[in-house]
Amino acid sequence: MKKLMLLGGSRYALPVIEAAHALGLYVITCDYLPDNTAHKYSDEYINVSIIDKEAVLRAAQEKKIEGIMSFACDPGVVSAAYVAEKMGLPFQCSYKAACILQDKGLFREFLTKNGFNCPKAKRYEDSTAPLKDIDYFTWPVIVKPADSAGSKGVTRVDVPEDLLQAIETALNGSHNGAFIIEDFLTFEGYHSSTDPFTVEGTLRFVTYSDQLFDPEADNPYTPAYIIWPSTMKEEHQAVLTGEIQRLMRLLGTGTGIYNIETCVADGKPYIMEVSPRGGGCKIAELQKLAYGTDLIEAEVRKAVGLPISDVRQTECSGYWCEMVVHAGPGQSGILKAVTVDAEVAEKYLKVTDLCVKEGDYIRPFTGANMALGDMFFRFDSREELENVMSRQKEWLHIDLDEPGGQRLFC
What is the per-residue DSSP string for 188-220? Predict the structure, then answer.
C-alpha cells in the first residue's frame, strides 16, 4: 500500500484524505496540533512542526512514504517541496522554486526581474528600515507578512504615521520574520483566486473568479465570496493565461495543482500570488462541481506516481458562489446556530460545510482562520446570483449569545 504524507491537519485536508483512501492509499497526517480535525480521519498521525523541513524529512524517510502534499496548507509547502526533492518524489516544482513562490518578497523580485507586471514592492526584516523608504512608495500601501496566507497580518496603510503598527501586525503573522510593503492596487473589477493545474509544465486547466470582500468585516482584505465564472475581460484572461504559462516555464514546473491569485489594475493584468498547493476556501471542491474536473484526485494521483485521469479545460456549468461564512463586524459570542431560510436553501444552496458547532466561541472575521465554514450556491444567471447574495442579511442567520447573555444576529 502506497503511503501519502499530508502536511497540516485542518478540515481542508479531508477531501484529500477521502480521495486518497478511495485510491487505496495509506495517509499519514503531520503537524504539531494533535487535536486537528484531519488527524481523526487519517491512518496515522505524526507530531512534527511542518515548517521544520529537516524534521519532516526524517519522518518521511522513517515512514518510507511514496508521496507528500501540503494541500491548502501554506506553512508546509516549502517543507513538502524539500522532502520531495530529497527523496525523489513527484512535486509541482523544485525546492528552489517553492522558496521563491512562498515568499512574497522573493516572488515580487522574480516577477520584476523577468518583466512581469508587478506592484512596486520591497521586502524587509528590520521593522524600522521602511522608515527610510517613505518616498519610495506611492501611498497608500499594503503591508503583508512575507510568508503567510489567508490575508492574515495584512493591513492597508494610508499615511506613514501608521506604518509601524502595520509592520508589527505583519510580523505577528509571519513565520520567517520578514514582511513586504507594496503599492496599493485599485482593482478593475475583482481580484481572482482559483486553482489551475499543469501537466509537465503546461497549463491544462485554468479558471478565473471574482473574489469579493466584506467591507464591513474586521479585516476587509479577507476574501468573503468567490464567484465563477469571472467577469474579467476575455483579453485580460488571455494575457494572464499566457503570463502564467511563461512563469511556469521560467520556474521549470512539472505536474500539479496551484493556487493562483490575479487582478487587473490600471488596465494591466497582474499575477499576485502563486503557490504550489491547492487553495483554501475549498476552491478545488467548488471547481469540481462547477467545471466537472476533479483536481484533488489528480493531485493525489500525481503525488504518489499514479497515472493522472484526464485533466482538460472545461466550461463552467451555471453561476457559482462560494460564501465564506463569518461573524459580523466586531461581533463575538457563543454560537447557537447557523441557518439559511428554506426558500434560498432549497433552490440555490448545494453544499454546507461548517467548521463550528453549537457552543463554540465565535470571533470577529480577522482572517480566513476565523471563518465559520463555507457554503456553495448555484444560480442560472449572474443577475440571479447578485440579487440573492445581495440580500444575504435577510436569509442567513448566525445566532450568537454573548458571554453576558445578549443575543446577536449577523
Answer: SS-BEEE--EEETTEEEE----EEEE-TTSSST
pLDDT for res 51: 96
Which among 119, 116, 118 has a CA at the least distance from the CA of 242? Answer: 116
Which cell numbers hold the place of 254?
512539472
Q: 336-366: per-residue pLDDT in tens?
A: 999 999 999 999 999 999 999 999 999 988 7
The enclosing H or E element of 143 equals strand 141-145
C-alpha cell, 29: 497526517
pLDDT digits (tens, 9 = 90+) for 179-198: 999 999 998 999 999 999 99
User: In this structure, which amino acid lies at residue 197?
Assistant: F
The DSSP secondary-structure symbol of 149 reads -
Q: What is the DSSP letter of 386?
A: H
Q: What is the CA radius of gyration of the chain?
A: 21
Cell of 364: 470577529
Q: If 0-12 CB within 10 Å is exposed, 13-18 middle and 19+ buried, where does residue 363 land?
A: middle
Question: What is the four-CA torsion angle of 305, 309, 314, 320, rounded to 10 degrees?
Answer: -80
What stretches of 294-381 show up as alpha helix (H) in DSSP?
A: 295-303, 342-347
Going from the C-alpha of 88 to that of each of 64, 215, 305, 395, the distances in angstroms are 12, 46, 11, 51
Burial class (CB in 10 A: 0-12, 13-18, 19+), 383: exposed
Exposure of 338 in the CB half-sphere (CA atoms within 13 A): 23
Q: Which of 358, 224, 350 is nearest to 288 (CA)?
A: 350
